[in-house]
Amino acid sequence: MEKKEYLNMLASQLAQELTAHNTIRNFVGMHPALIGAYAEASVIQFIKRIVFPLRVSTGTIIYEGNVGKKPPQLDIIIWSPAPVPAVFENGDYAIVPRGSAHGFIEIKSTDYSSSVKDISTCLDHESELIQPKIEGYRGALGIVCLAQKKTSKIMRDLIADNRGLILLKQEGDHTVPNPDGVWTLINFLAHVRLRASAIDGRLTVNHKPTSNYSIS
Question: What is the distance of C-alpha 204 from the center of its chain?
Fold first, then answer.
């Protein structure tokens, strides 16, 4: 078996749980809200499996520059309770101090133009919210669960820069995994885990006025 064929087969199997939309349609028909909600929930569970024991929450990331100034709502925050825990955490919701957050993801069920613009706007917060920056580690990613029409230029640019991906594609009446998207997600999550490991126990809070965090 050729390497690419093997990787495509493996990606399809890993993402098999994400394609249950085909069965859901038998019960709810073409109901975008219900199908989209299931798609997003499935992706979140997929992410949790890969990054465990890191935490996965929705909410926001705070630091001294955005406290009280409507920090952005983030669909997925991957974080650990070090050097400090979340200031608020309830179920899947958390407000995470910068430095404890290792990455965030904006996720949309479909690739409508407004959804893709929301992804791009959210990703613009990467340099602000994921600090300290470690060279070679990307801290933010945009996910479109299901591509239903021609991919927009914004999304094509994000995909080309490894900042965005499409997980599933529509082929007739069936939803099939997009191997490139699956591997982009897995590689991003691997880098998030590596970042968390690299700073675990080395990132301390400098409570002097000179800086926010230091790596010792």
Answer: 25
